[in-house]
Every structure is written in C-alpha cells, then in structure tokens.
Design brief:
Strand content: 5-15%
Number of helices: 3
Strand order of the largest sheet: 1-2
Length: 129
C-alpha cells in the first residue's frame, strides 16, 4: 500500500483567490503574534528585540511538571470550620464642638394682587362656552 501525500488545504478568498493556509502558517510562524503575551505565532516566548527567550516545548514541559494540587476526599461540609478572630471594634473618636449655625433669613411672600382685567379677544370669548 502506498502512502498518500497529505492533502493541502486550499481556501478561496472573498475576492476569488486561492490561499494555501498551511504555507501561510509556515512562513509566518516566526512573526510576533498580536497581543500582550510576547510570543510568536508558534508559541515561543520572545525576549528583548524579538529574540526567542523560551521555546514552546520548554513552556509546555514546565506546565505539565508543575503540581496541580491534590484532591481532598472529605466533603466540604464535614471539614471543621476554623474559628475566625475578629479584630476589636474601633473606639469612637471625640467629636469637636462646632459653633451653632446662624439662622437663615427667609423671603417673605408677595401679597397677591387681583388679576389684570382681560382685554381684546380674551374679554370677548370669556362669556362664550
């Protein structure tokens, strides 16, 4: 049985051009990736000047070597609850006496005057309903 060559993934762009995605990935894997993680498109950590500081394989190896924490067999309800020590309540501060506020003067209401007599069309329409 003869092994087949891997099939190339070709895509048609919106403008009708054919694009080879695998070739595009391979040519741009050393280009700095967009974002704030300081990595290239392959996943290598970049240092000063865009030089590779840590390869992706070392990053993955370090991730899987780190302990993830252990599983606790006892349920959370069965565990004893630690007693919390509350700090003492703060003492109230002495309040300084302030001078009494001065009374405000209020405006006096204007005396109501009789409404002005109606003139013109308002006087003519006053009796009609």
């Amino acid at each position: 049985m003869v092994a087949r060559a891997p099939r190339k993934r070709m895509y048609r762009s919106m403008q009708g051009r054919m694009i080879d995605i695998e070739k595009l990935r391979a040519t741009n894997e050393d280009v700095r990736a967009v974002g704030n993680m300081n990595v290239n498109a392959r996943g290598d950590v970049l240092g000063i000047g865009g030089k590779i500081a840590t390869h992706k394989t070392e990053v993955i190896k370090k991730y899987y070597e780190a302990p993830k924490g252990r599983v606790d067999d006892t349920p959370a309800r069965a565990r004893p609850v630690p007693i919390r020590k509350t700090p003492p309540a703060p003492q109230p501060k002495a309040v300084e006496s302030k001078p009494a506020p001065q009374p405000r003067t209020t405006r006096q209401a204007k005396p109501k005057t009789a409404p002005a007599p109606k003139k013109g069309i308002d006087a003519a329409l006053d009796g009609i309903e």
